[in-house]
Automatic annotation (TrEMBL):
Name recorded for this polypeptide: RteC protein
Species of origin: Flavobacterium psychrophilum (strain ATCC 49511 / DSM 21280 / CIP 103535 / JIP02/86)
Superkingdom as given in the UniProt entry: Bacteria
Pfam family, one: RteC
Length: 278
């Protein structure tokens, strides 16, 4: 496998970067990269049709690691093309569009929680079930793409891995776009800096921010969550912008208590009150 795959993926990355850096217009760039990636996927499939894997571990590695890297790029740039082609004019409308796209990414991560957590935790116990080709199609109710899939070229879950990887890239892209808009709107004010420092975990403060935002106790809820995070960041001298959306996904995907810090905060405060009363 390595005899073909190693030079194939090295050449792919080199050509990919050349094409990517040749265009500044996002729509033209996405179109060119989609055509390139589709051509490379066909090359990979032509090889795969004639190759016999030497072991189960080799087949698992290909369908869990290698193939999704390629397919995820195609999914990502198709998403970028759709996003950029339908982007409205005006900063406020663009910001709303990016935030709506982020919400869609979050919802997707909740549709198949079991596999999402399996993949994120780097588990391997079900790899043979998920990443070994079968002579029978195992259709997942949530994966309409599988109806026409080729059992010679696909496993039941390699496309799901590609989707997760593509969503990660899209999430980072959307966060960058929102940060650009926030910077252009002069949301960063050095004068707001204080001597206060948040000494807990960053995700704990993010948990508090989301709780306050959901409760609508700041500006009656009429404030964007990222704007709120920016101001909390200024007050407590901590950068929250890069993590605000991704951390929320992590909070929602916790297996036990979702609001772990708030629960701990409430328990400690109640204990303190009871101690003072006695």
């Amino acid at each position: 496998m390595n005899v073909f795959c190693n030079p194939f993926f090295i050449d792919f990355e080199n050509e990919f970067e050349i094409i990517k850096n040749s265009f500044t217009d996002a729509i033209i760039q996405a179109n060119e990269l989609i055509r390139f990636i589709e051509r490379k996927i066909k090359e990979l499939y032509n090889w795969l049709k004639t190759y016999a894997f030497e072991s189960l571990s080799e087949e698992i590695y290909f369908f869990k690691e290698l193939k999704p890297k390629l397919v995820s790029r195609l999914i990502f740039y198709k998403n970028i093309l759709k996003l950029e082609s339908n982007l409205p004019i005006g900063i406020k409308l663009k910001k709303k569009c990016f935030e709506k796209s982020l919400d869609k990414v979050y919802l997707k991560s909740r549709k198949d929680k079991d596999f999402y957590q399996y993949y994120r935790s780097r588990a391997t116990s079900k790899d043979e079930q998920y990443f070994i080709r079968s002579n029978e199609k195992s259709i997942d109710n949530d994966c309409h793409y599988q109806i026409n899939y080729d059992i010679q070229l696909c496993t039941s879950h390699d496309y799901k891995v590609a989707m997760i990887m593509a969503d990660d890239s899209l999430l980072a892209h959307l966060e960058d776009k929102l940060e650009e808009i926030n910077n252009s709107c002069n949301l960063k004010h050095p004068s707001l800096k204080t001597n206060l420092n948040w000494t807990g975990n960053k995700i704990d403060l993010i948990e508090v921010i989301y709780a306050l935002h959901h409760q609508k106790v700041i500006n009656g809820g009429n404030i964007d969550i990222k704007d709120l995070a920016v101001h909390f960041g200024f007050v407590f001298n901590i950068d929250l912008e890069e993590n605000i959306y991704r951390s929320y996904v992590d909070i929602k995907n916790r297996k036990t208590v979702k609001t772990k810090f708030l629960h701990h905060l409430s328990e400690n405060f109640n204990t303190k009150i009871i101690e003072e009363e006695h």
